[in-house]
Amino acid sequence: MAQATAPTDTVSRIGRLVRLLSLAVAAAGVIMVVAGAATWFTVQGQLADEKITVSEDAGWLAGDDINGPFSAYQEAQVIEKHALAASGGKTYAELDKEDPKRETVMNGSFLRASLFTSVVSFGIAAMAAGLGVIFIMIGYALFLVARRLTTATPPAVES
């Protein structure tokens, strides 16, 4: 009875490849978590530096500092309400080009777009960080599989 070493070498080689893949996936996850957190805190800091508060007539979060996705979204809603009230319910595109209210509504649209951009940025940052955590977990699972493969000894093959 002779033992073949080829299956052991193959399993060991696959184990090393899986371990390398696990490290790459986990490293990508760490990068995504760091990038997501950095984006979140950068956007939060930029909004906080503006020292804006949610309008008192907001449905919720009235008076809160705008430094997060919910307060930014709420203030964008309030700005829309004020712009529509100022224009008699018309949007920027619906107003006549000579209407003096058009500039007020345009500024409201720009402010809303800026606030919505920050809301989207918060969402992408959270998604990147969340996916990063999932990548780290997948990397760890692959690492465990690789460990099993490198320590496994296949049964002897008879020739």
Helix/strand layout:
Layout: H1 6-49, H2 69-86, H3 101-151
Explain this structure to me?
This protein is mainly α. It is built from 3 helices and no strands. Helix 2 runs antiparallel to helix 3. The radius of gyration is 28 Å and the shape is rod-shaped. The termini are close together. The model has no long low-confidence stretch (mean pLDDT 90).
The global form is rod-shaped
Strand residue content = under 5%
The arrangement of helices and strands along the chain is HHH
Poorly predicted ranges (pLDDT <50, ≥5 residues)? none
The number of E-state strands comes to 0
Helical segment count: 3
Q: Bin the helical content.
A: over 70%
Q: What tags apply to this protein structure?
A:
3 helices, mainly alpha, rod-shaped
Brief summary of the model shown:
Helices cover 71% and strands 0% of the residues. It has helices at residues 6-49, 69-86, 101-151.
